[in-house]
Amino acid sequence: MRLTASDLYTYHLPSRCELRPYLKANAVEPSPPGPFEEVLRTLGKRHERQHLESFADVVNLSSGTLEERTERTIEEVGRSAPAIYQAVLRAETVLNGVTIEILGEPDFLLRGSDGYVIRDCKIARRITEADHPEIRRQLELYGWLYENTFGKPPIRLEVFSGTGELEPIPYDGGTAALAELGIVHALTGSSEEPFSPVGWSKCQPCGYSKRCWPAAEQRHDVAVIYGVDQGLVRELRDQGVSSYDKLISTFDEKTLAALKRPWGSGTQKVGKRAGGILTMARAMERGGAILLQPPDIPEVPNYVMFDLEGMPPHLDEVDKIYLWGTQVFGDKPSEYHAALSNFGEDGDREGWESFLGKAARIFSEYGALPFARHRIRPGFF
């Protein structure tokens, strides 16, 4: 059996899921990437290509079979090539009592005074344990593969990030990466589907969302309730509560608020969120909205409906707005106006200034009037 550094990404992205590696290993096809994912892939390839072009003398190993590239990697390191692009490193280890081949393809091996630096290109801007553990595990695994191949650890591990800076990654000898690969190996070899709760932020960007989410809705899974986190789902499941129907019949606001669920390295009570969770559950049970209070909307002859479109936050930790849309509704409606960010270094500024200009023309024609942003957010009634 073979595991790769990419399997760590499958486990972690868009957020950690025990089911995703199992589905992938069992040839369950995810939905094709959406337009936003394709944009990020394009940006990532461009980021990597631009960095590649910054090296005057580089050996490109991106073509050929894995076996040929592995041999070429050893040969080029042996002759002290100054820079190696798309090397292949391979080694064997025992995970869960089974001998596994581990494979990694670091973007760059860069010669130093006594060995090589391993560098990967990522468009992410925060290469932290909290934001991108998968990037750190991937680089740690490359370090372990290098050490097992050449008998000594790399000089250092680093990421050329989306900020244009080099971010160092501590090397722990591959301990954390191999531990997670052990988890992935156990999940992929499971005899039945591993349990992994669905979740709003967890599942919507996942390629398996169209498989998992409708099934959860059909069984009235407690995890589809907005505001129910993964720890609470697991705690409720341990208590025999897996549907929102059972949640309503088992808990009232007081008892749910007192319930402790896993939180970080300890536990935390549900607390003040209990009321909103139960209200959402009742609305889902009856299949209709619950009016908490009438909306307080000022009476004016015209409103500007205003909306933004940007890169989804799960795809990049910086919310990139590329479209500002406005349209007046009321006694004197207007046409739709869009301000778009262009490509290039000044694209964001140009888009923002275009929006300000369009807004100024609306104020000039209509005078002072409210801007209303249309936002769909589950759990608000």
From TrEMBL:
Occurrences of domain PD-(D/E)XK endonuclease-like (ranges): 57-212
Pfam families: PDDEXK_1 (PF12705)
Taxonomy, superkingdom: Bacteria
Family annotation (InterPro entries): PDDEXK-like_dom_sf, PDDEXK_AddAB-type
Protein name: RecB family nuclease
Organism: uncultured bacterium W5-15b
